[in-house]
Amino acid sequence: MITETSSATKEKGREIVPLAQEFRRIPLANIRDPDDPVRTAKPDEEELFNLGDSMLSDGMIYPVLLEPVGENFFEVVIGSRRVRAARYREQLDIPALILEPQNALTRLLLALAENIQRVQLEPFEEGRNFLRLLREFGLSTSDIASKVNKPTAHVKERIQILSLPDDVKKMVMDGEISIRNAAMLARVSDNERQEALAIESATHRLASGELRRRVHAEIGVDGESTRVIPYNVTPEKFAARTEEFARWFKRAIPRLKLGETNLGERTLMIDALNVLEEKVRMIKSLIKHQKTSHRKKA
């Protein structure tokens, strides 16, 4: 007779450490906002009223997360808007999960992941927090993407657009320019040219491909004529593409000041070089394989 054995009896699982200590109602007078919140934009009165009304009528579906910062006092880790809305509606307390004390990186990741998944963060707020993770905590863009459950390109684009001038940022926020196009504009070093290209893109509704061609023309890269894609690859295009990379490195290396970069930025550059090295090895392997195949045929 065959009997089933539970997996718990076969293998001892790893010990689970609870993130939260307890769930209880906390007086609002005992709660303070974080010193460096993920969201810098303050909600307006209408938003606070609507959120507070929803909390009163539907109840708190998601309790706030608090961390103890002293005897009977707490700091918000997740839920600053809900705390403000409760205060606006003159509530006395709010249901909360009390966390074990967390380090600064864990607090930031918790707050950022919550805001990205549940509340649509502005792209520049995302970028500022991603940049903080990169600079203060030494995370790479792929590390950040993994921790907030977003593609690496999402993280890179939002960091890149932080360098845009205010007028172009406003065009992004107003929906006149997509974030992808804004990230392309960030490759142009001159702010006036960034603004001119942004206005042109918004006015004429330039497609991403057309804007890319204009940006490449600005920075001295012939992006379309040398781009190598599987169905139109030729030896000439492949050679032109590799020469383009070589020219870019020759221009970039003298301007690279490693002494002025922090650990996170150096880590990002090393990660990029490692990826590049891997691709170069792949190309070398393909070339070697081709040579071997030709010898066998001969």
Could you explain the architecture of this structure?
The protein has 298 residues and is an alpha/beta fold. Among the domains are: 88 residues, Conserved hypothetical protein from pyrococcus furiosus pfu- 392566-001, ParB domain; 57 residues, no CATH class; 59 residues. It has a five-stranded mixed β-sheet. A hairpin with a 2-residue loop joins strand 3 and strand 4. It is elongated. It starts with 6 loop residues before the first helix and ends with a helix. The N terminus is likely disordered.
SSE topology:
Elements: H1 7-10, E1 20-27, E2 31-32, H2 45-58, E3 64-70, E4 73-78, H3 80-88, E5 93-99, H4 104-118, H5 123-137, H6 141-148, H7 152-160, H8 166-173, H9 179-185, H10 191-204, H11 208-219, H12 223-226, H13 235-252, H14 263-297
Domain ParB-like N-terminal: 24-116
InterPro entries: Chromosome_partition/occlusion (IPR050336), HTH_ParB/Spo0J (IPR041468), ParB/RepB/Spo0J (IPR004437), ParB/Sulfiredoxin_sf (IPR036086), ParB_N (IPR003115)
Keywords: Chromosome partition
Radius of gyration: 26 Å
How are the strands ordered across the major sheet?
1-5-3-4-2
- Main beta sheet strand tally, sense and closure: 5 strands, mixed
Structural class: alpha/beta
Family: Belongs to the ParB family.
InterPro entries: Chromosome_partition/occlusion, HTH_ParB/Spo0J, ParB/RepB/Spo0J, ParB/Sulfiredoxin_sf, ParB_N
GO molecular function, one term: DNA binding
Pfam families: HTH_ParB, ParB_N
